[in-house]
Amino acid sequence: MLLRANHLSYSVKGKSLFSIEQLHVYEGERIGLVGKNGVGKTTLLQVLANMKSVNEGEVILKGTSAFVPQEDDLPLLEAEHKERHLWNVPQTPNSGGEKTRLKIAHAFATEAELLIMDEPTSHLDVTGIEQLEAQIVNQSRTVIVTSHDIAFLNNVCTTIWELDDGKLTAFSGNYDAYKKQKRERVDEQAFQYDQYVKEKKRLQQSIEGVKKKSASVKKAPSRMGNSEARLHKRSAGETKAKLNRAGKAIDSRIQQLEVKEKPKTEAALVFNAAQFTPLNAKYVVQFQDQQLIIPNQNVAKKLSGHVQRGDKLAIIGENGIGKTTLLRNMYKDRTRFSVSKAANIGYFDQHQEQVDGARTILENALDHSPYEESFVRTVLARLQFRGDEVHQRAAYLSGGERVKLSLIMTLLGEHNVLFLDEPTNYLDYVAKEALIELLIAFPGTIIFVTHDRQFIDEVASHTLDLSKDEARVKDVKHVETAHEPEALDHMQLDLQMTETIKLATTIDEDEKASLDQKFQELIKQKNRLK
To answer: CA 125, CA 97: separation in Å to the nearest integer?
Structure first.
């Protein structure tokens, strides 16, 4: 056992954030910590990393640990750290991705036995995430990590910790295994609740039957003689007493039934077709041999393809390759990209501001929305704006919550086409799953930019990969079919990547640059197979 914690309790302003009786971390475990935003995941990691003190309890670490913070506070790194070369970190990191790479490089360079990582995937592109996955899996480190990247949790984790309502529950396996176990628990809870309701109803009906029988016991008729009346009265009294005892016994059984709680279920997200304005054109966007100039780079890419009504196109590629630029160009230069005149486009990015702080969350969401209030409230609830919270003024929302509300306003507006730039940012895994369900149900057309692989897998019907010099729109089904005969190549590349990482930790500095170049090329080859 590498880490043990007992009776952990942490409160903020007198309100309990979490209370954990016991937790264990065993050597070689790779633990993914999941939970809704605000439940205390970052705080728990800081407590386990000995960076915050608890109100009660103790944390015992048998070894060394390194912490990768979510914030931009950068550790002081020495230039000779071998991991810095492998992670391609510039001397002065500026972008969010470069700073994240530096923090990861620093953590691995410490050679600590336990790595505690808070959202290390948040600013990495797909190439960087896959590099992190390979290094975690192929080194004998123990890891506790939070991440909103579900594909990352699936590829890395051997255990999932769920922090919910102040309690920590452990599930064996990766994220998909955790979701399966959760569904099985909910199904079992639903079955137990159904059995409880049926048995209670049966017993209550039995009581009603007993009461009716008791009420049907008649008094002695007036024509009876005194002796007959006394006998009848005695017999009737005995019958009633027996029935009353039976009724009390049944009522006692009801009281002794173990109460089963009804499992919480989420309302389905279904757009009302009558409130949606369809696009009466076959093609939403068309472009042939269009050039994309990437800002601050002497690079021009040639783009070809079309997006049909109902398609869901994912624009993919590494950070800085021009994904957002292309999406913005499509939105602003409709003539160049032959955007249908019937397209009523809802555009979302992280920096736009359409939320009115003087109005409530609900009022903002209803503004310019063709949908009924009941559906709008369902969408708000699924994306974590619940109950009376929707009547709160938007001015009091955090920056991330305002971005999320802005996204909801775009989704629920009078649009038949959506352009979405990184819509999963600021969403926890629960809200992200609701967004996936919402976009799959959306009856219009969607073009989106994201680095979230699970989001792409579940939502996209087509992809446009900007990592290629001549990028073309491809049908996802066609791409998947093309992958099947190349499965062996993937395995070979994974083995070579593993060997490269192992070599980089043992060889001299002079050879690191060439190994780094080889590793990056292996990642590019793997991406091309996708």
So the answer is: 8
